[in-house]
Give the backbone structure.
Amino acid sequence: MRVVQLAQVAARAEAVRVRAMLRRVMGNAVIGVIALLFLFSALGFGHLAVWHALREGLGWSNAVTAAVIAGGDLVLAGLLAMGAARSTPSRVETEALAVRQRATDGIAASANLTTMTLAVLRRWLQSGGDSPRKDGSR
């Protein structure tokens, strides 16, 4: 019976962990989409402003202006990628994972005890069910 209870605890803990993880991932996805919309808008207007400033103010050629803008885009993309990669599991996810691990460890321990008990019982029943005497007779 203990094995079933531990399996239920492990299943509930896993469900809590998965729900918390999905909530975090979905929240990050929504924020990411909104950030991308603002980023594309800002990049569009920013590109126009920088292009105009470099071409008109400094008299740069089209190729040099495009290279400078592309370099800035790469730096910005790198910063955004590093920010997105910093997402870590929440406290709830970590605790639920620990509960699940303890429950599955308990299942393994209980299953081993059950297996050993059944093996001893089977051997005892095969021997006729009598307890051996010290002199070796039955």
